[in-house]
Design goal:
Its cofactor is Zn(2+); NAD(+); Co(2+). This is 3-dehydroquinate synthase. Its EC number is 4.2.3.4. Pathway: Metabolic intermediate biosynthesis; chorismate biosynthesis; chorismate from D-erythrose 4-phosphate and phosphoenolpyruvate: step 2/7. By secondary structure, the protein is an alpha/beta fold. It has two domains: 3-155, 3-Layer(aba) Sandwich (Rossmann fold), CATH 3.40.50; 159-337, Dehydroquinate synthase-like, alpha domain (Up-down Bundle). Helix content is 46%, strand content 17%. The chain is built from 14 helices and ten strands. The strands form four sheets. Strands 3-2-4-5 form a four-stranded parallel sheet. A two-stranded parallel sheet has the order 1-8. The structure holds nicotinamide-adenine-dinucleotide, the ligand O=C(O)C(=O)C[C@@H](O)[C@H](O)[C@H](O)COP(=O)(O)O and zinc ion. Nicotinamide-adenine-dinucleotide is lined by residues 29, 31-32, 35-36, 54-56, 59, 86-90, 92, 112-113, 115-116, 119-120, 123, 125, 135, 152, 155-156, 160, 163, 167, 242-243.
Amino acid sequence: MSKLYFQKAQSIEKLLSALSYSSIFILVDENTFKHCYPLVRGMLPDHTLIQIEAGEQHKDINSCQLIWNSLSQQNADRNALLINLGGGVITDIGGFCASTYKRGIRFINLPTTLLSQVDASVGGKTGIDFNGYKNQIGVFNEPEFVLIDTSFHQTLPERELRSGFAEMLKHGLIADAQHWKDLVGCDFNLISNQLLENSVSIKQKVVEKDPNEKGLRKILNFGHTIGHALESALLNSNEPLLHGEAIAHGMRCEASIAYELEYIPQEELNQINESLLKIYGPLKIKKALRENILRLCKQDKKNQNGDIRMSLLNKIGEANYDIAVSENTILNALDNCL
Ligand SMILES: NC(=O)c1ccc[n+]([C@@H]2O[C@H](COP(=O)([O-])OP(=O)(O)OC[C@H]3O[C@@H](n4cnc5c(N)ncnc54)[C@H](O)[C@@H]3O)[C@@H](O)[C@H]2O)c1
Ligand SMILES: O=C(O)C(=O)C[C@@H](O)[C@H](O)[C@H](O)COP(=O)(O)O
Ligand SMILES: [Zn+2]
């Protein structure tokens, strides 16, 4: 797996000096151009900026074309380096474009949101959305390294911090009850470096055992069958959800399914609901949206032989994967939780 550095973004200069490359490209969106690029600009050797539009709607093939075009027009060769400076949208799409341009150039992740620092920049999943479905086109490929600097949080809106916190809570729920306890007792605006590092290390340990998601890695997808469906269903609505928010509601729904299927006791379900509702509040969806959510669940990449397969909790701190869940069970969970 790639090396993770928890240090100031300015140390990029030294880290780059250990690599040989023909040219450097920096991928940003308008917000990371404004808030994050100034922190590193002076430390970077000569480079070309590539800017895409911010937001999940732009994690698509049009942005890929823009990125590939820039690389091509600037004559990037196979020894070029792409530095992804941004949140999960930038690290996902940048990693994918780098991995496919001329069959692969190297890339570096410099994540600037809490979510991308604890989750998206780590583990080698890259990709884009397609036909209204999440992350349908992509490859597994690791960055040269990941440089995590929490100074970037200073300009992050509170809503983005809250969204990233959901993936940290997920790490506790699936693999470490103590991490869950530590997190529910803390303010997501004031996350210590220690908690952040603990969270990333939970993900790293899972990825190390199963980098290409043949089995165990699917536990990192807890909350994502329904969460991704909610995120996609509401993406072009008046009230889109951020990824982590969608996952938080997905985790409530999928915890209720784990209870229905007798994997977790009532007391743990209550604890999960209480904690998640306190941070993310309730979500109300129109009845008419239920069928659309079910349709989206049917496209989940974990499904097998036409069955919807979920990753569900066995208890707080432990999860299992490949569990077949019926359409009725999903619809009941949507009715009960949303
Ligand atoms: N590859 C993986 O393993 C993985 C894991 C989790 C999530 N993801 C993906 O990550 C994406 C979500 O990532 P995200 O939440 O970081 O979203 P994002 O990249 O859209 O960033 C959120 C917003 O914050 C802005 N921003 C970024 N850094 C900033 C900063 N320091 N100051 C001010 N504004 C800043 C961005 O411009 C954007 O508007 C989703 O597409 C999700 O599917 C991937
Ligand atoms: O790293 C993983 O594996 C994850 O599942 C992490 C998730 O938080 C993340 O949202 C990931 O992008 C989901 O991937 P997908 O395979 O469900 O598209
Ligand atoms: Zn996620």
